[in-house]
Structures are given as C-alpha cells and as structure tokens.
Design the sequence.
C-alpha cells in the first residue's frame, strides 16, 4: 500500500487497510521527507516551497499520527518514530536548506506534542530520531553514512521496550538536544 502523507485520503486509505488486516498498529515510523530547495537561501526562497516542504516533512507526520493513534492505542507497546534531522535542532541550527530545517524543527515540536497528548492518554510513546547524513537519493553520494548506519538508529527506536523513552530526540540510540 502506497501512502502519500500529503494527501488526507491516501492516509485514511492506508489506515483503513491496516485496520482491516491487523486491527492494530504497534509502531508508526514517519520517514517521509523531502529537500525541495537547492539554490535558494533565506533571502530568496519562495514561501510556497517552504509550505510544500512543511506539508510533507511535518504536517504529513502529524496527519499520519492523528490517523493512526487509535490503532496504536490497541498495542501493548505503541510507539511513534519520527525520522527527523539534526538540521532541525535549534541547538545546532545553521544556514542553508531553509525549508528543510524549518520543517524538521516543526517535526521535532510535533513529536513533543504527540508525546504530551498521546502518552498519558494511550501510552503511545513518541520519539524523534536523526539518522545522520545518509547516502540516499536525498543525501547524495557525498554523505558520511551508509544506509545501514542510518537505519540502525531507526531500528533501535522501533525496538525500544514499553517502558522506553518518549518525548526525546536520538541519534544512534543516544539522546541529543532539540
């Protein structure tokens, strides 16, 4: 099932399929992400490009978390893993990739808000992870990590126990600053 996180109907169709086939969801991994800008910086990036990036990288994750929250609530160890980026950490903010940085900072806030809203009510844990700069289509060939290195932190977060972390940001299983 292909799911377009920028499309409400697509997310609802995916939720319906998971619900009909499994009746619950143990872990939601929000890993959709785009970098749309290349030659732009803050002084000339079109606001529409920022909005498009936010719609996929942050609002798409929010849309998906909201859609799947009741299926997650049926699990014994419900967790949300949002694939973020250190480029969205306010403590390590630099210039460049304006839309991407804004969208990942928004995803980090959404992770915290999911934690505050869903953890007490449904015991759903929400974790953000930074895979690092990974050699993918988006990361490019000059990235410093191979795919396995990037995936390892995500797999770690997926496999955290029911009493594991929530409302925190990690890289390689180690907490990092927002």
Sequence:
């Amino acid at each position: 099932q292909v799911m377009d996180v920028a499309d409400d109907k697509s997310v609802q169709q995916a939720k319906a399929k998971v619900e009909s086939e499994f009746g619950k969801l143990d872990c939601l991994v929000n890993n959709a992400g785009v970098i749309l800008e290349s030659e732009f910086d803050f002084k000339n990036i079109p606001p529409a490009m920022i909005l498009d990036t936010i719609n996929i990288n942050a609002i798409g994750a929010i849309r998906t978390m909201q859609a799947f929250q009741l299926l997650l609530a049926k699990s014994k160890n419900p967790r949300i893993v949002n694939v973020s980026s250190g480029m969205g950490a306010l403590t390590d903010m630099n210039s460049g990739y304006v839309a991407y940085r804004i969208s990942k900072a928004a995803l980090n806030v959404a992770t915290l808000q999911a934690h505050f809203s869903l953890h007490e009510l449904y015991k759903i844990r929400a974790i953000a992870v930074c895979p690092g700069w990974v050699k993918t289509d988006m990361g490019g060939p000059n990235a410093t990590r191979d795919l396995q290195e990037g995936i390892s932190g995500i797999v770690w977060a997926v496999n955290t126990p029911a009493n594991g972390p929530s409302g925190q940001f990690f890289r390689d299983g180690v907490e990092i600053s927002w």
User: Anything to note?
Assistant: The first helix runs from residue 8 to 22.
